[in-house]
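Researcher: First entry.
Model:
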Amino acid sequence: MKSWIRRFFYRSFLFRSAVGLSSITLGRTQSIGISHLQSYMEEGAVGPLQRDEALALFGIVRALRPLTVVEFGFFHGHSAFNFLCALSEDARLYSYDVDDESAKRARSEMGFDPRLTFIYKSQTDFSPDDIHRLKIDFVFFDAAHLLRLNTETFSKTLPHLSPSAIVAVHDTGLWDKRYLKEVHHDHIKANGSTWITPDLCAHQPEEREFVDWILNMHPQFGAIHFHSTNTLRHGFSLIQRQCRLEDNAIAA
């Protein structure tokens, strides 16, 4: 009987959904809170996180439970809300942007959540006082897309990173021309994107240069890149101080 139920569970989306809902209703499990991602765009997203990228970052933040997250680039609030859905109740998110519409959205649409602090400042004006001098556990770069501004911002935040902090940089991947749509071609023409090969385009080349700059100037850091040419993927890179697992002072 149990084997039959398991087979039905694996094969039926509706049955899996019903089991999950009943588990939450009965208090056996808690909702993981990813319903918002159903409305996030995937291939059609150009500026914001793609849906699957947001899902990946949600999982990373949900698994690590950082207490202090700093985001450079609020835009429409998609990544900020994704972080809020993943964060624990005692965490804080500090989001920087200089766009008036972003400030309005943060206030009118997300002002209900006390964990979010919107900071109407350029990323290069970062001050530890903005974040109450807390140590940063996770920082997300998705604002200027300019090497000079990003390196200046990183240099200011570096002293305030926790030992195991993760730096995430969006738009570090390559676009494969097989998957490009009109909106992507328009972006390439308008934003100084660089064709690395006849088939692969760096849609935000200075974000890639930024990651390489960190690795060259701060060799204590290493990176892993969430890139793919099997689909249209903006890509993001995760950067963290390198250590052996036996080094408890860092790994903890």
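Researcher: Second entry.
Model:
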Amino acid sequence: MNHCVTCDKSFRFKDLYDKHIITCEFFSKSKREHDREIESFEELPTSQDQYKLIQHLYLQVAKLQKEVERLNDTMLIKKRRLIIDWLNGPSNYIPSHSFVEWTKSIQVDQDHLQYVFANGLTEGMKQCIHSHLDSNVNAPVRAFTQKPGTLYLFVKDQEIDVSSWKMATSEDLDRWMDRLSHRFLQEFIKWQLENADLINSSETEKEKNLEYMQKINGVGKQSEDRRKSEIKKWLYVQLEKNIENLAGNEYV
């Protein structure tokens, strides 16, 4: 037998007992307990009220999202400002040359040219820059983990004769890339003059010369923009440092 301890009733069958026990326990509760349970059940809102509630919640979420974006922008500006302040602070090193002077000192030689012949202008420019970075410990270009994809340049203001660090602009880097690619072209013309007899010795050599010329010049504006973008990303990876490891408590 299945015995109900609430009302002292017994049932032969378990399924009947299970049905009984649910209602019996409910009705055996005190009136106050019933009133509290009834108050806990709110009336379901209408479809229009539900729509208004969803709209209200959406506006709240949108407002919070804008606030988060504003705070993120503020933090980025603060972080950018802190990096510039640290770079221009008294505890940081001062490069011996400005960025423009440094880029003008980059030499393109026959080894770099041969690398272009084998791998293309982009890889040749990377190799040239890399060898120059290795020979210049105090290079006037830096990058930090805290500002992904951003380069900092040590520049000189010619009008007031003052040097300082600043964030690199696309124009700064494009002028450098253009100058460097022009040097490769100059070195290629020099190579052509030195190897004129070889170039004209056979159709095969003439075809090679045309192929090398295409690699030196690149292929159209789209290829040039892609090359510049790739080199900038590559340069950031080469230079990236964690400023917190360098500045310590100065960078908060």
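Model: Note on the second entry: The chain has a mean pLDDT of 83.
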